[in-house]
Amino acid sequence: MDDIDQIRLEDGSKDPGGSILIPISKIDPDGKLNVPEKEGKPMRKKIWQKKWVRLGGIVLVIFLFFISLSGIWAYSYFKKVEVVGASVLNLKLAFEEQDIDKVKQELANTEKSFQNLKNAYKTILWMKSVPWLGEYINDGQHGLNGASYGLEALKIVVEVVEPYSDIIGFVKDSEQAKSGQETAQDRLDFVIKTIPEVVPKADKLIEKVKLVKVEIDEIDPTDYPEELAGKKIRLRIEKVMELISLGSDLLEKSKPLLEASSYLLGVDSERKYLILFQNDKELRPTGGFITAYSIAKVKNAKFEAVESSDIYNLDSHYTPSLTAPEPLIKYLKGPYILSRKYRLRDINWSPDFEESMRLFTQEAEKVGIKNVDGVIGVDTQLLVNILNVIGPIGVPGYGEFSTKIISDCNCPQVIYELESFADIEGPVVWSENEPGKIVFAPPNYDNRKKIIGPLMNSVLANALGQPKDKIPQLAEAILRSLIEKHVLFYLTDEKAQAAVESFEIAGKLKDNYQHDFLFINDANLGGRKSNLYVKEEVLQEVEIGKDGSVVKTLTITYNNPEKYDGWLNSLLPNWVRIYVPKGSELIEFSGVEDRENPYEELGKTVFAGFFELRPQGIVKVIARYRLPFKVSLVYKLYIQKQPGKDAPSYLITLGKKQEEFFLRMDGELKIKI
């Protein structure tokens, strides 16, 4: 068969356009048909280019559409944010104006605007699956959920406190508003009657606040920049999370105390308490040297002091029978030269208030103090906090007392007067030749703390007689005194004791804590009232090895900046005990003149030693030790404050991270490694 080169099909027209050319096809010798590639490739490229242009245009249009849509959504959303912000501001102002009815109205407005905000946010929840961006969308949802639970909790709070609105300083036009002549005692009586109604609502409040904490804990502050547009973003998030955590813990701890309040205040039957006055200017393990005591009866929240006296009077009737700790015998001397047995005034040697008071009440029974329902330890700071609210008070036979700072001691006048009354004639002088014999004592030595009873009665009468506009500040002063450990409780009733332990006002060391722990306890062993001036700074340098092992260097700096006066300020013989996790290994211990070998007490390992601090002097005590466990991811430290101390400054360093604060209450610190 001849090869076919080309076939032209004619349609009879002479016009060349009337013919059709068919591409040449050849059959090779093997019988295969070879069809040449079609011509016109450039045309195909042009077609695909047009398709890409069209597709790109469509994508661009879609992108611009979404950008526009996002812009519209963002504008609409942030308008809703502004509305919520305005509502929150109005709610804040209502609280500041202390108008309970306005608070309720603004709370309702805030709930409504916030719900609109949540509904708007739902439209972008599909973006949670988008890498990187999804994390922040998720955080936003947790934040909104937490805020929603927070509003529900606030609604419960308003419902709970409304009957007591005037107690916390709020006003309203309802029938529950009381006259301005109503006293603190009147309002306290009302509170006592309504406590049973409050407890069930407290459960709901605790539940809501827990839910807030669960949501907020899902947010990781390290995902956010430290600063943005000059604002500390990460720090703000951390502070909010910290406040929520503290609030949640405080509410949960307060419920048992609320349930036990009827018992404590003598609603069901009269209570009898032994009140011990501890002088924090002469610091001892549980808060101060026991200077005086009072027996008080409480019925329906009405306190009555039935007996008050100097601790030395009580001690004079006591026959010592228990061997005192070696530091008391060795450094306090005085009566311990004659006998190595405990005096009642020194029995608060254990830093565990319950342990010390159990021993004290056991021995006090031998001198007639029996059948008490508990012991309440108070120091001078409680008195200062109350007088700051109620102002100067008069005490019949003793003059006026106030918190005005006076130059004689650079301290509150009430502190100066209390110390002056006790010691103005000079200190007690013991014979060097005849151990146990006093060769000189001030005129008031036999009852040098006798002012305590009249002073306590005047404070109680003035505090409970305050008009209602002073009640919020008075309640705040008492609460601050409690959480800062200027008031401690030991109760014989197990349920009541568990309640004060839960609220952390029982002066106990924290147990069953599986992380780092620190508690520094000091005892003034004959240094007059030097703790009035001593400042304490604590530095903790934490080193974490690659294997998670922890070595700490603890530096405690004691500074007495004032001059020697032989009365208030003198040489301070100090016994320090450092409580750390059980099993810690001591590497170095310096700055002490005498020391004990490490030992175990109250479930902790203790490093203890003695030093003397002179007026205008500085002492540094350094302890370097290894923790008995390893850590990873997060370093946790629980620090407890010694009762009676003001607010020692603390600095913790871990690598480049630092935490600095004044220790006013017990608390936990967390640092990510």
UniProtKB/TrEMBL annotation:
Annotated protein name in UniProt: DUF4012 domain-containing protein
Transmembrane segment boundaries: 52-75
Classification via Pfam families: DUF4012 (PF13196)
Keyword Transmembrane helix recorded: yes
Domain of life: Bacteria
InterPro entries linked to this entry: DUF4012
Positions in coiled-coil regions: 86-120
Keywords: Coiled coil, Membrane, Transmembrane, Transmembrane helix
